[in-house]
Automatic annotation (TrEMBL):
Short name of any one Pfam family annotated for the protein: Prok_Ub
Name of protein: PRTRC system protein C
Source taxon at top rank: Bacteria
Annotated source species: Acidithiobacillus marinus
Amino acid sequence: MQEAMQMKFMYNGVELPAPEGATPAQVKDDLAAAFYPELNTAEIRGPRIEGNTMVYEFVRAAGTKGKGGH
């Protein structure tokens, strides 16, 4: 019998807690954004497979709002 795939969510090298069955978008929007406001505009990358785990990574958008290029 094949073991079910697990899901893991990472941001900046830190594993984020997530309820079982949550989608990557739900984790990003509902959980992570409460602790990491910069994730509101983050990209979801993945999954990459590590053993029996699907790893999703939240990556901040490039650039910083309000910074001038002078």
